[in-house]
């Protein structure tokens, strides 16, 4: 997973993680990926590991 988030770590100019210590609505999501982090980071990694079985014909 780490390579997918390279350049988008917490503190980077283009972070894909939520981090707020002042916005009460965002604080529960601290250290969780943003929507872009899920779309560009987690989703491609998971999709590349999933094999959908085809029904026998």
Structural write-up:
The chain is mainly alpha-helical and 57 residues long. It has one domain (2-47). 23% of the residues lie in helices and 0% in strands. The chain is built from one helix and no strands. The protein has one helix at 35-47. The N and C termini lie far apart (36 Å).
Keywords:
57 residues, mainly alpha
| Backbone shape | elongated
> Could you say how many structural domains there are in total?
1
> How far is the N terminus from the C terminus?
36 Å
Structural class: mainly alpha
Low-confidence stretches: none
How many individual helices? 1
Question: How helical, in percent, are the residues?
Answer: 10-25%
Q: Give the integer mean of the pLDDT values.
A: 89
| Number of β-strand runs | 0
The biggest sheet, with number of strands, parallel, antiparallel or mixed sense and barrel status, is: none
Strand content: under 5%
Order of helices and strands: H
Radius of gyration: 15 Å
Reconstruct the topology from this structure.
Blueprint: H1 35-47
Write a short abstract of this structure.
The protein contains one helix and no strands. The protein is mostly helical and 57 residues long.
């Amino acid at each position: 997973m780490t390579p997918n988030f390279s350049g988008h770590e917490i503190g980077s100019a283009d972070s894909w993680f939520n981090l707020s210590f002042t916005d009460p609505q965002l604080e529960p999501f601290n250290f969780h990926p943003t929507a872009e982090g899920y779309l560009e980071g987690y989703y491609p990694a998971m999709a590349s590991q999933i094999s959908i079985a085809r029904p026998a014909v």
